[in-house]
Here is the input.
Amino acid sequence: MADDRTERATPRKRDDARRRGQVARSMDVNGAVVLIAGLFALSLLGPAVVGAMETSMRDSFERISDPQAALTAGGLEGIAMSTLRTLALAIGPVAAVCAIAGIVANLGQVGLKPSAEALKPQAQRINPLSGARNVFGPRMFFEGAKSIVKVAVIGVIVAMAVAPKMTELSATVGASPGQLAAELVSLVLSISQRAAIAYLVIGAIDYAYQKYTHEKQLRMSMQDVKDEFRSQQLPAEVKSMQRRRMMQQARARMMSAVPDADVVVTNPTHFAVALKYDGTKPAPIVVAKGQDLIALQIRRLAAEHDVPVIENRPLARSLHATVEVGQMIPEDLYQAVAQVLAHVYRVAGNARRKVGAR
Here is the structure.
C-alpha cells in the first residue's frame, strides 16, 4: 500500500526509474530558459532585427503603394515572399539561440542518459482505468490550475505593457517604418521581460511540485528495501554456484553439438575444435571447442559418433584462440579449413564406394 512506502528510494530504484524514462522535469522551466535566451539574443541582435523589419516594411509599403503591381497574384506573392525571407534572416539567429537553450534546459533537468524504454509502447498507457485516474488525479488538477494561472498572468502582463503605450501606439499610424518597427520591438521586449520573470517563478514552483511527486512515486516500503538489500548481498558461495551451474549448462549444450559436427581438428592433445558446415551459411561454424580435459571429452564424443578427427596443430590453435563457439571461422582460415573438409569428404566418399563395391 502507498501508506507503507515511507522510505526514500535507493540508488538502484532511481536508476531503474530513469531507464524507464521516469524523471522529474518541468516544461515551464524549459519555457523560461528559452524566453530568457531569446531576450538575451534580441538584446545583442536588436538593432539588426529592427533594421530588417524596417527594410521589410518599407519595401512592402512601396510595393503596396503601386496598385497595378500589388493587386496581382504575382505582386502579392512577391510581397509575401520578400517579407518572409527578410524576417527569417533577421529572426533566424534568435530562433537558433532559443532552440539551443531549450536543449540545454532539458539536459540540465534529465541529464545525458536517453531512455529507449520510455519510447516502447506500454499497455498501461492505453488502459482506460489508468487514464481515468490520471484525468481525475491531483496531477491533472495541478496542471489545470497552473494553465489557468499562466493565462491570467500573461493577460495581466500584456495589459500592463500595452496600456501605458496606447498613446504612443496610436501616434505611430502615420509614422515611418523605422519608428513603427522600433515601437513594436520595444513593446515585444517589454512584454517578454515581464513574462520571463513570471515564467521563472511558475517554472520554479512547477519543478518543485514535479520533484515532490516524483520522489513520492519512488518511495519504498521497508520490506522493499530489505528485499533489495538481500538480492544485492547474496553470499559469495551462492554466486559461485550460479556461475558454475551456468558454465556447466553451456558446456553441456556445446557437447551435445559434437555428434553433429563434420570434423574435429586437434592439437592433438591440448586443443580440440569441432566444425560444422551445412551450406546454409557462407563459412563453417565452430560448434564446440576446449582445452585439455574438455578437448579429451570432445575427442571421445567424436570417436563414439564416428566424427572424423584430424590432427592439424596450427589450425587447431588458431581456431581455439580466435573463434568463439557459435561463430563462423574468419576469412584468413578459409583455405586451411577447406582443405581439412575436402580431405574428410574425400575419405568419406571413398569409404562409401568401397561399401558399394562389396
